[in-house]
Amino acid sequence: MYIMSKIVVGKKADIPSGKMVHIEAGGKDVLVTNIDDNFYAMSDICTHAGANLHEGELNGKEVTCPWHGSKWDVTTGKLIWFPSKIKDEETYKVTVEGDTVYLEV
Ligand code: FES
Fold first, then answer.
1. Which atom of ligand 1 is nearest to the CA of 65?
2. Whole-model pTM?
3. Does the beta carbon of 63 lie inside 6 Å of ligand 1?
4. Number of domains within the chain
């Protein structure tokens, strides 16, 4: 049986809208983002060749991979653009309780 764990990402105030945070949780590299004060989480590892997406650039809800430029929707984990078909990113649940942001992996 797989048990979800709930991990503190940080204080809401430390992750303002437009910011990306990288966190290791449950053996996974996770990218947590704040887009217009909604929090999202997906795998930080590009499914193309393994770059860390938090080292790329975030524009609105679109993150660009620093290695070969794939573009991802951080709110859904879906691929927006790449010349070939690559797998979508796994997404995770983020919750906010009081002023603390939690990740469930
Ligand atoms: S590793 Fe991300 S596009 Fe190649």
1. 2
2. 0.94
3. no
4. 1
